Please model this.
Amino acid sequence: MTDVTRLLDAVRAGDRHAAAELLPVVYDELRKLAAARLAKEKPGQTLDATALVHEAYLRLVGPADEKRWDHRGHFFAAAAEAMRRILVDTARRKTAARRAGAREDVDPDRIAAPGEDDELLALDEALDRLAEKDPVKAELVKLRYFAGLTADQAAAVLGISPSTADRHWTYARAWLKRAVDGTP
Model:
């Protein structure tokens, strides 16, 4: 059993000290994931990797103790979702502050790595629709795009083969492009 799994089990059992011990163990990996994700953003972001990791960690082990992780991969999937929510919330705040006219069209060629707030929000909405249709493919996108995992790492977290992950990734990217572009 890895240290992460042991600490997650202790957190699940209600050990508050385990939550404090967990951060140093997962910090470097979460920071790498956050840095990879923020590298896809346009320059001038108000969030840096450290701030994103800290905010995500607080959401993961904060006061809402209902969160449970079955294993290390599940924890990092939850971290990817937390980072997604933080980035989307930040984009929404920035977009609301400057909303003066119509939303610009989204460039579908950039859907795999949107850099603009409007593009991130469009991707988020499309990803929610994909999750309703196919939760596994949506989770794969979150892990690959928001957590920066490789196809093999994401496949391991989801418990699917790498070839299935590749097929799901190809399908999900095409589906999201069409959804964001507004084509049937």
